[in-house]
Amino acid sequence: MLSVNGLRKSYGQLEVLKGISLSVREGEVISVIGASGSGKSTFLRCLNLMETPSAGHLEFENFSLDFESGARRQPTSRQLCELRTRIGMVFQSYNLWPHKTVLENVIEAPIHVRKMSRREAIEQAEGLLGRIGLYEKRGSYPSKLSGGQQQRVAIARALAMSPKVMLFDEVTSALDPELVGEVLSLMSSLAAEGMTMLIVTHEMAFARDVGTRTLFFDQGVVAEDGPPAEIIGNPRSDRLRQFLRRVVHDPAQLGPSA
Ligand code: ADP
Ligand code: MG
């Protein structure tokens, strides 16, 4: 449903993504691991075209886009906008609008981008907030919510656009440890419902247990790609073993495989 071929991204002289080819099937839940600076965030941003790749090809729904300069199928700005609404993204910093209530945060894009009626948007938002257990908070401002609650609202806000794919970039990294679980469990339930997702995370047990597939990013390439239990449980390359030793100080912390 979403594929890229030979995707590259440079910032000036620095080549951050060095030719990534990947095909994502509907319903796949892909955990993305790798050291800081390996290009994971840049990759997600290129997938929903918040960043324009320097080269490569992307296919998604009815889009077929080439990024080489001078290529025939360069995306128009209208295509970029449309594509971004079809691929949801959630970040480490929740980026909720502080001067809007929870409900207003969730209905904003459906009304202004999707041209949904206010009434329909509210109905949908209330349903989503109910599902994530935050219906009672619909009239509150983000500052009155815990970090975990704010992050769940940010996820609901992305879901309100009915995306085909959801991208998560270290969404629990800024949270206090006791709030991580509620956000991970929301992502697990989305996965169980069949949402197609790419999840950049440093939570190795989660990466191993939620995903149907794991990618290990190393210096701008996908160095390993396979079933989570194999990639994380039985790493083949020295680089991946080193990485796992660094992020998982105590291997017992990973616990038994689910
Ligand atoms: P990761 O998410 O794996 O930590 P990033 O994709 O954030 O990695 O960054 C990969 C590399 O690209 C880093 O060296 C980073 O400094 C560089 N980089 C990321 N964004 C930009 C930017 N907007 N301008 C210049 N360099 C960038
Ligand atoms: Mg990152």
From TrEMBL:
- Please tell me where this protein is predominantly located: membrane
Q: Where is the ABC transporter domain?
A: 2-244
Q: Which GO terms describe its molecular function?
A: ABC-type amino acid transporter activity; ATP binding; ATP hydrolysis activity
Hey, which family's this protein in? Belongs to the ABC transporter superfamily.
Location in the cell: Cell membrane
Q: Which GO terms describe its cellular component?
A: plasma membrane
The record ties this protein, via SUPFAM superfamilies, to: P-loop containing nucleoside triphosphate hydrolases
Keywords attached to this entry: ATP-binding, Cell membrane, Membrane, Nucleotide-binding, Transport
Q: Which PROSITE patterns match?
A: ABC_TRANSPORTER_1, ABC_TRANSPORTER_2
Task: Indicate yes or no for the key word Phosphoprotein.
Answer: no
Q: How does it sit in the membrane?
A: Peripheral membrane protein
CDD domains recorded: ABC_HisP_GlnQ (cd03262)
> Which InterPro entries has this protein been placed in?
AAA+_ATPase, ABC_ATPase_HisP-typ, ABC_transporter-like_ATP-bd, ABC_transporter-like_CS, MetN_ABC_transporter-like, P-loop_NTPase
Record protein name field: Amino acid ABC transporter ATP-binding protein
